[in-house]
Amino acid sequence: MADHYPARPPVRTPSGLFPSGPPRPTYREPHRVRPAGLTAGLGAGVAWLLFLGLLGGDLRGYVSWTVLAGLFAWAVAWILTRLGDRGVAAGVAIATGLAWSIAAVAVAVRWGMTGDWPLW
Questions:
Q1: To pair with 26 at 20 to 30 A between CA atoms, which of 20, 38, 62, 72?
Q2: How far apart are CA 1 and CA 23, in angstroms?
Q3: How far apart are CA 8 and CA 72, in angstroms?
Q4: Span 95-119, mean pLDDT?
């Protein structure tokens, strides 16, 4: 007598929807961005750019001071990224981008209202 075993079902490769196999390794940041550092960098960046932007007497001066202060702020953010707290660096970079956006909108509004480029 021959033993009859049922046929095995074909082997399917998993779709990936349900993980199978060993768990994947998790990598943790050695210096995570913390909310306190991000807020401190954002506050310091806003204060720096606001005070230097107020030195300009007109729109041209405001934009010039804001661009110059933003370049220095980005240099500090780069140094902080390499040597210090990345959260503070991210806050400074966010404040710089916001200040440059405000300056660009102010130039666009003045240009649209007068039809003359305000930075010459």
A1: 38
A2: 46
A3: 69
A4: 95
